[in-house]
Design brief:
- The complex is a heterodimer of chains A (225) and B (387).
- Chain A has 225 residues and is an alpha/beta fold.
- Helices cover 32% and strands 28% of the residues of chain A.
- Chain A has seven helices and ten strands.
- In chain A, strand 7 (165-169), helix 6 (177-192) and strand 8 form a beta-alpha-beta unit.
- The longest helix of chain A is centred in the C-terminal third of the chain and has 16 residues, at 177-192.
- Chain B has two domains: 3-44 and 255-384, no CATH class; 60-236, no CATH class.
- Helix content of chain B is 55%, strand content 17%.
- Chain B has helices spanning 3-11, 15-42, 44-48, 70-76, 112-115, 123-131, 140-146, 189-198, 220-230, 243-253, 255-286, 288-296, 301-337, 349-376, 379-384; strands at residues 53-58, 66-67, 80-88, 104-107, 119-120, 135-139, 153-158, 163-175, 185-188, 206-207, 209-214, 238-242.
- In chain B, strand 7 (153-158) and strand 8 form a beta hairpin.
- Classes of the chains: A alpha/beta (225), B alpha+beta (387).
């Protein structure tokens, strides 16, 4: 299986006034295509930072990150935005849906950046909402949906543009046990059925069990399994 | 679903806040429009002044009269087409109240409507005005305000020219366009002069000012100099200027009031800006996490700025449009309430253009700071924000 994500000697240091706070130290990681990777570690270990770097919403202080052969650290802001829209699907802990948009409209958001026709967009949105089991709730607003349903809408939004990589930052962190289980089943299905590569940050060992591989981060360093 | 729809939906997120902001902008634009209309109405005479008319008055001050005898000499000057004259009569109709004030002028019936072609008087009424010594002609607006009809007698108590005066309405003139003053009363100067002669008044054979129509407006300066040169060694020296300059000198007497009204009108624009900027800054701050999510999905700074500026512009334009629409009936009512103070009280195209321009400008400026902040925000920082 070919490598989709190559993290090479990545260091990330945050600057607060004159203070330098090292968050990631010389991290190297390969994620093969079709992998379902769980990143675990205590708070402040740098797992979300690593996720942000891989998804191109933050830049490393040193080192390189190649996703599908593209060194994303070398892309400028607009190129990076375009790259994200084509290659990355995000699932956040707090869903981050637009409260003024319906489930359908939320899922449609990434497609506004494409040249698809109105009909094609509609077909795609309806298809992914069916995959996540919300075909009958597409006209509902986020506040009319449960937490689990909102997260399923967020997953539908993440996969609607058929991204190369799905990034999940504590996707079950705000859900009850049952809803969390449903989301994990859904992510596993996306990985096994739709061959999506998934990198998920989680605190929850049970959630991590859904992944093929688990990597532990501690104090900015990757610990071997 | 389009970006515009998202802008629209964002507007409805805090309906009361959006409504109050739009209402605030509408009221401010209404106040701006009304103040600008007052300012332009104040100087309507300047705008309405004809390029081919000169005014010759006493060189010392407007209140000093000129000899009637100048008329024949002025008519002989090269480039002069027609000479007319007028005197400010003043007097009191009924009482000193504001609503009973209107300009009362002693004029030359033979020439006054020739030099003021913007006033239209039916031919039979003009003939009656020329023939009936105590006849007067009044403007249409004045007739409507007081219910004067042809044949009515208007009694006026004189002050500059003492005694009780009665003028019989023989004609009602109307303006050819909106800028014509329809609130004046013209009566025959001869009627007044006869009385002055009988009472051996100082004002006998004296007129207030000459109105000189010239053949070529480009020669106005030369003719003005020629007129003033003619009387440079006489006891009643003259000052001749274009009608526009003459009217401007009246307006400049109220210059401080007008200037302060102009300043207030711009202060209002500043207030709108603050109100809108406050609303947009609050809205953008509340949505900073959403903007971060949009950027994460691949939307660019251009899209985010478009959302913020679009909402700001939508609010300012909607408020501005409502305010502008309201300006017309309110101005109409204001003008109707003070017909003689503001003979012409109409919302000018420049006022409309300024209101629209300022609405757009305010919308753009109010969005600059929140747009900049959202555009320069790092996605990771935005995602950490708690909305």
């Amino acid at each position: 299986m070919s490598t989709l994500v190559e993290v090479k000697n990545v260091t990330k240091v945050y600057k607060r006034d004159t203070m330098e706070i090292p968050v990631l130290q010389n991290i190297s990681l390969d994620v093969p295509e079709g992998e379902f990777l769980a990143l675990m570690g205590p708070s402040g270990s740098g797992k979300t930072t690593l996720l942000n770097l891989i998804s191109g919403i933050d830049q490393p202080t040193s080192g390189s990150i190649l996703v599908g052969g593209t060194d994303i650290a070398k892309l400028n802001e607009s190129a990076l935005a375009k790259w994200r829209s084509n290659h990355i699907g995000f699932v956040f802990q707090f869903y981050n849906l637009m409260p003024v948009l319906t489930a359908f409209e939320n899922v449609e958001l990434p497609l506004l950046l494409t040249n698809l026709s109105k009909k094609e967009k509609q077909q795609r949105v309806e298809a992914v909402l069916s995959v996540v089991g919300l075909a009958d709730r597409m006209d509902h607003y986020p506040k009319q949906l449960s937490g689990g349903q909102q997260q399923r809408v967020a997953i539908a939004r993440a996969i609607v543009s058929d991204p190369t990589l799905i990034i999940g930052d504590e996707p079950t962190g705000d859900l009850d046990r049952k809803s969390a289980e449903e989301i994990l089943v859904l992510l596993s299905r996306l990985n096994s059925e739709f061959k999506k590569t998934i990198i998920m940050v989680t605190h929850d060992p049970h959630a991590a069990e859904s992944a093929h591989t688990i990597q532990h981060l501690d104090k900015g360093e990757l610990k071997s399994n | 679903m389009k970006i515009l729809k998202l802008i629209y939906k964002n507007l409805l997120r805090h309906k009361l806040r959006s409504l109050l902001t739009i209402a605030g902008i509408a009221i401010a634009v209404l106040a701006f429009g009304l103040l600008r209309t007052v300012v332009t109405a104040w100087s309507y005479g300047v705008e309405a002044a004809s390029a081919d008319r000169l005014i010759t008055r006493h060189a010392v001050a407007f209140i000093f009269p000129l000899p009637y005898a100048y008329k024949g000499q002025l008519e002989q000057l090269e480039g002069v087409k027609k000479v007319s004259y007028a005197s400010w009569f003043q007097g009191t109709y009924k009482d000193q109240s504001f609503e009973n004030f209107f300009p009362r002028l002693a004029v030359d019936p033979e020439t006054i409507f020739d030099v003021y072609p913007e006033f239209t008087l039916p031919a039979d009424q003009l003939t009656a005005f020329k023939q009936q010594r105590n006849g007067c002609v009044i403007g249409k607006k004045l007739a409507e305000q007081h219910g004067f009809k042809i044949g009515d007698i208007i009694p006026v108590t004189g002050d500059i020219y003492p005694g009780n005066w009665e003028f019989t309405v023989v004609g009602i003139y109307y303006g050819k366009d909106k800028t014509a003053d329809e609130t004046q009363l013209f009566f025959n100067w001869e009627y007044m002069n006869e009385r002055n002669r009988q009472t051996e008044s100082f004002a006998t054979d004296q007129i207030g000012w000459y109105i000189i129509q010239v053949d070529d407006p480009n020669q106005a300066a030369t003719i003005s100099e020629a007129i003033d040169a003619l009387y440079v060694n006489s006891p009643a020296k003259t000052k001749t200027e274009t009608e526009k300059a003459f009217q401007q000198s009246f307006v400049s007497l109220s210059g401080a009031i007008i200037a302060s009204m102009e300043v207030v009108s711009y202060v209002i624009i500043g207030i709108i800006l603050m109100v809108l900027a406050n609303t947009i800054i609050m809205a953008a701050r509340e949505r900073i996490r959403e903007y971060a999510v949009l950027k994460t999905l691949g939307f660019t700074n251009f899209h985010v700025v478009g959302l913020i500026a679009g909402e700001s512009l939508f609010i300012s334009m909607l408020g501005g449009t409502v305010g502008l629409i309201l300006t017309f009936p309110v101005s109409q009512a204001f003008g109707d309430a003070f017909p003689t103070m503001f003979p012409v009280f109409a919302v000018q195209p420049t006022t409309i253009a300024m209101a629209i321009g300022f609405s757009v400008l305010v919308g753009v400026i109010a969005s600059i700071f929140p747009s900049y902040r959202s555009a320069t925000m790092r996605i990771v920082d935005g995602l950490r924000q708690i909305g």
